[in-house]
Design a protein that fits this description.
The complex is a heterotrimer. In chain A, 51% of the residues lie in helices and 5% in strands. Chain A is mainly alpha-helical. Chain A has two domains: 99 residues, Alpha-Beta Plaits, CATH 3.30.70; 206 residues, no CATH class. In chain A, strands 1-2-3 form a three-stranded antiparallel sheet. In chain A, helix 7 packs across helix 12. Chain B is an alpha/beta fold. Chain B folds into two domains: 115 residues, Nucleotidyltransferase, domain 5, CATH 3.30.420.40; 146 residues, ATPase, nucleotide binding domain (Nucleotidyltransferase, domain 5), CATH 3.30.420. Chain B has eight helices and nine strands. In chain B, strand 6 and strand 7 form a beta hairpin. The longest helix of chain B has 23 residues. In chain C, helix 1 runs antiparallel to helix 2, helix 5 packs parallel to helix 6 and helix 11 packs across helix 16. Chain C is globular, with a radius of gyration of 21 Å. In chain C, the strands form two sheets. A four-stranded parallel sheet of chain C has the order 2-1-3-4, sandwiched between helices. Chain C has a four-stranded parallel sheet with strand order 6-5-7-8, sandwiched between helices. Chain C has one domain. Classes of the chains: A mainly alpha, B alpha/beta, C alpha/beta. Chains in contact: A-C, B-C.
Chain lengths: 328, 268, 425
């Protein structure tokens, strides 16, 4: 019986499963406010509160506000609030590890829909060269630094109120998320001060870049996403593990060929057991595209849950099944 | 009383050893292989049995080995000469100690075998493509120098000074090289010594391929040549054990295999 | 004048055909007769080889035959452009002798035989165009020699490293170039539908091989390694639909044999993983000796067998360029040919196969004159020693006269494996 369940899961049509989960979660998080649903303010995905009907608040904005308190306040009881916020964030995160990115984040889902449009039109995607990839990958940590340091400097009095949630002023999600409820008001450059002008100007520019970028590159924004970087720091605390069994891997590169994030290690590293990398969105496309039995698998509480199999590979790649299989 | 025969049909000579059920050597005989191995092997076996007054029906098990092993159809079993050589070496050197490396120089080939502490073959290397470094080479040299093959050892020890370098890659062309050396007024003793060192160098190279482990056993016809043994010991830098009857180690091993197989069959 | 002048002198072509037919039939008869419990479904393959190599039957007269010199030319693309891929690696001693006049004495016998075959021009299915990837030195240079015999030979750039991004990009470009050239030759354009269909078809053929391999993992193996070599060798030149059909019947029979526990080998036969220079029909000398010496080959790591079927192509977006890139990546990255600078993947694969198929030992065979396999020998031997897997290294070529020397070595190795097994108990 257990074998039947395992087979059913391992042979699953990942594309379909992912499509439906993403659709449901998109509606839930973007329009959940209409149903008075709320998931709190430490949510590990880009559920931007500038969208009034969002059912959760992106942790990054909360974090920036919490860290922006005057320095004396921070080193007092108020720090408890920051700690609680962080622990809530880690608790949410731990349930799905980086699969929040691949399955739950509405911003990620949006990019996947833009990609689907491009596919419909028969246009080829473009990729980064290895060098570009390695350099661009660092940008997310620069954003993360801005998120952590700018509020602290505000608390110190070095920077003033115009630097409030500086990252959000630059973030394309702030401009795009409200669009889903018909609110285009964020499409502005604020001229009240030079700083704000530059920050919101960057915001508008990034948004334009976002639309162009997501059209030609799969999951364009996720390379630069500071939330992704933050996730990776806490990935050890998750109940989900992404494991590779190196001696079963033939380094055929099938996983790399389908990876939206162009992660090379997934194909080339045959020594590490934990193959989760900082860019990974845990979309599981690689596990679905691996033609070897058990070379890649997702473990929940260290139990193998979804594993690469020859049979699953054949089914998903549209290769007919031999009726007299020894497994029957 | 049951007897067991090991028949080693080599390219140059046939060696037959008879043992009792306790694996002791009862007798042995060698003869030339010629062109009709099967016939000569049978004749040799028959004459050996006659000499020892053994009835053919008391022969419980026959194991054939060597290049011609598959031709001896009466054999109950056949095994490669590498396995047979290893088994024979361990048995023949029982009083000497543990054997880990076996060197064999035959009429037309040479081999090195590496054993583990239980006497199993773990690695082996063979030279069977080229006669340089085999008994054939010694035959050619002895013939050219007009001395007997069994005299080569004596001449070796009479050599003075450093051994000459005899570098032929081919045993056939060794003749030409020897003519050259004789022409330069080198003595027969020095040439013989040089030839021995040439063979020794080759064989040591072969042995290094399987790893030189102490407890070294040397057998095959040329092992009776003390000069050659001396050259090999010097090249290896280690002492080697020569059995009393070096020519029959492999056929002895085959006979021992026969005893084991017979016992295994009886226990089934 | 004596009567000796009356006899006719055979034409070179007839002589070559006769000798090749003799080589082929000798091996086929031995496989059919010398082993116990033969597999009935193998009759298709024995018959196929007899028709093609003894009776010189042409299989693809109505199709354009695209000759390939090595495993790295993607069959998927050739089928999608309405061609029939024919792998030209040659295993005949007769052709090797012809090639010996044209190539250095110490050259690889496989390349000599291939060149000799071209020189004689005696094909039942003559290639209309030949694609030659720049793999090992001898294959690379033989392209130009073959061209002098009047064949259309196109070089396909293949990198000597596979770790770097540069080599990945290089081969992707190379495959696009290959596609363009073949497209032009065929006067056809590559369509998304055709390419997807051919990827599926080849994928299906590969999955059938994987099914076959599952039976070889069992303790009681229902099919001999030499039969599997014939099957994979047939894929070089057979009509793919016929091959697939024959495989499907074979798998049904193997399922029955498996249920009835029919053993193709003996109860205590040591299990061998075979690797090294590819055994191409009829040069099955060494697998033949191995299985006649009471051992059984349960897996192999060679480009004439396992390597063709082991790795499959995965595509993310089914657009033509994406499919071409996926194909290029798989043919490069999954390739364990020793022409690369590093051979870690090959060593890992051999060790993995030895573990998965519970092998008792590995036999590594290199052609005398094959630089790459001979040079890799050391690293493979060291790796096997570290992993505790017994390995025998053997050198051979196509000449029929080495039987005694080869069988002594192989039998000694198998005897030592049997002893190990017995001692383990």
């Amino acid at each position: 019986m257990l074998n039947k369940i395992k087979k059913f899961i391992n042979n699953g049509d990942l594309r379909k499963v992912r499509f439906w989960i993403q659709l449901v979660t998109f509606i839930l998080f973007v329009y959940g406010g209409y149903f008075a649903i709320s998931f709190g303010s430490s949510f590990p995905i880009f559920t931007c509160p500038f969208n009034d009907e969002s059912s959760a608040i992106c942790y990054l904005i909360s974090l920036q506000h919490q860290l922006a308190m005057p320095t004396q306040v921070i080193f007092s009881m108020a720090s408890l609030g920051i700690l609680i916020g962080l622990i809530t964030f880690i608790a949410w995160f731990a349930v799905l590890n980086k699969a929040w990115c691949g399955y739950m984040c509405p911003f990620g889902t949006l990019q996947d829909w833009i990609t689907a449009l491009r596919k419909r039109m028969g246009i080829r995607f473009s990729t980064y060269t290895q060098n570009e990839f390695e350099n661009l990958s660092k940008i997310k940590y620069i954003f993360l630094a801005i998120i952590l340091l700018v509020p602290l400097f505000m608390g110190l009095g070095v920077l003033d109120r115009e630097w409030t949630h500086a990252f959000c002023q630059m973030c394309p999600a702030r401009i795009i998320s409200p669009m889903f409820v018909g609110d285009f008001s964020q499409w502005t450059i604020d001229f009240s001060s030079i700083t704000v002008m530059i920050l919101t100007g960057i915001g508008v520019a990034f948004t334009g870049l976002f639309f162009v970028g997501s059209f030609v590159k799969k999951r364009f924004f996720c390379f630069f996403c500071p939330m992704s970087g933050l996730h990776y720091i806490f990935s050890k605390f998750s109940i989900i593990r992404f494991t590779k069994e190196g001696d079963k891997c033939t380094r055929c590169g099938d996983c790399y060929a389908v990876c939206d994030m162009q992660i090379k290690d997934i194909a080339d590293d045959v020594i590490s057991k934990n193959i989760l990398r900082d860019d990974c969105i845990l979309c599981l496309k690689c596990v679905a595209a691996c033609p070897e039995d058990d070379a890649l698998h997702i473990d929940i509480f260290n139990i193998k849950t979804f594993s690469s199999t020859k049979e699953g590979f054949n089914k998903r790649m549209g290769i007919q099944k031999f009726k007299g299989s020894i497994d029957e | 009383m049951k007897y067991f025969a090991g028949i080693d049909i080599g390219s140059t000579s046939i060696k037959i050893t008879l043992t009792d059920e306790e694996k002791n050597i009862i007798g042995f005989k060698t003869s030339a292989s010629g062109s009709m191995f099967y016939k000569y092997a049978q004749e040799t076996l028959d004459s050996l049995l006659q000499e020892l007054n053994i009835d053919k029906n008391d022969l419980a098990y026959i194991v054939a080995t060597g290049y011609g092993r598959k031709l001896y159809k009466e054999a109950d079993e056949n095994i490669s000469e590498i396995t047979a050589n290893a088994i024979g070496a361990i048995a023949a050197a029982k009083e000497y100690g543990e054997i880990k490396t076996v060197i064999n120089i035959g009429g037309q080939d040479s081999k090195a075998i590496s054993l583990d502490s239980e006497g199993n073959v773990v690695n082996f290397a063979m030279n069977d493509r080229c006669a340089a470094g085999t008994g054939k080479f010694l035959d050619v040299v002895a013939l050219k120098l007009e001395i007997g093959v069994d005299e080569l050892g004596d001449y070796h020890f009479k050599s003075t000074g450093t051994p000459l370098s005899v570098s032929s890659t081919c045993a056939v062309f060794a003749e030409s090289e020897i003519i050259g050396l004789l022409g330069n007024n080198h003595s027969v003793e020095d040439i013989v010594c040089g030839v021995h060192y040439s063979i020794a160098k080759r064989i040591v190279k072969l042995v290094k391929r399987v790893g030189v482990k102490e407890g070294i056993y040397f057998d095959g016809g040329p092992a009776m040549n003390e000069g050659l043994v001396n050259a090999i010991e010097n090249e290896l830098g280690k002492k080697i054990f020569i059995p009393k009857y070096p020519q029959v180690t492999t056929s002895y091993g085959a006979a021992i295999m026969g005893v084991d197989s017979y016992r295994y069959e009886q226990n089934l | 004048m004596s009567n000796n002048n009356q006899h006719k002198i055979e034409s070179p072509k007839d002589r070559q055909n006769r000798h090749k037919a003799m080589e082929a039939i000798k091996l086929l008869n031995s496989i059919k007769e010398d082993f116990k419990s033969p597999v009935k479904s193998m009759d298709y393959f024995y018959d196929l080889f007899e028709r093609v190599y003894c009776k010189n039957e042409a299989l693809h007269s109505e199709n354009v035959k695209v000759g390939t010199m090595c495993i790295q030319i993607p069959s998927e693309i050739i089928y999608a452009l309405d061609g029939v891929p024919i792998r030209l690696c040659n295993g005949f001693y007769t052709d090797d002798e012809i090639g010996s006049d044209l190539l250095p004495q110490k050259a690889c016998p496989l390349v000599k035989a291939t060149v000799g075959h071209f020189a004689s021009g005696n094909f039942s299915d003559k290639p209309d165009i030949v694609f030659s990837p720049t793999t090992c030195d001898q294959k690379t240079k033989s392209g130009a020699i073959i061209q002098t015999f009047g064949y259309d030979v196109i070089d396909v750039d293949f990198p000597r490293t596979k770790e770097s991004e540069e080599s990945r990009e290089y081969f992707r470009k190379s495959i696009k170039e290959f596609t363009t050239k073949l497209s032009k030759f065929q006067n056809k354009k590559l369509s998304r539908k055709n390419l997807k269909a051919s990827i599926s078809k080849i994928g299906y053929a590969q999955s059938l091989y994987h099914e076959l391999s599952k039976y070889r993992e069992n303790t009681i193996v229902p099919i001999l390694g030499i039969d599997v070599f014939l099957i994979t060798n047939a894929f070089f030149f057979d009509k793919i639909d016929n091959w697939i059909e024959a495989m499907e019947s074979l798998l049904v029979e193997l399922d029955n044999r498996n249920k009835e526990k029919i053993n193709a080998a003996g109860k205590l036969s040591p299990r061998i993983v075979y690797t090294g220079s590819p055994p191409i029909f009829p040069n099955y000398k060494i697998p033949h000796i191995i299985e006649q010496s009471d051992a059984i080959i349960v897996a192999d790591e060679t480009c004439s067998s396992n390597r063709m079927f082991n790795d499959m192509v995965a595509v993310d977006e089914w657009l033509v360029n994406d499919m071409l890139d996926s194909i290029a990546d798989k043919y490069l990255k999954a390739c364990t040919c020793p022409i690369f600078t590093k051979n870690d993947d090959r060593i890992r694969r051999i060790i993995h196969l030895a573990k998965q198929y519970k092998a008792d030992g590995v036999i590594y065979q290199a052609f005398a004159g094959c630089t790459v396999y001979e040079m890799e020998q050391r690293s493979v031997l060291e790796a096997m020693e570290k992993a505790g897997i017994p390995i025998l290294y053997i050198e051979s070529d196509y000449s029929p006269s080495q039987h005694g020397q080869l069988s002594t070595r192989i039998e000694a190795f198998i005897e030592s494996l049997k002893t190990r097994r017995r001692n383990k108990k």
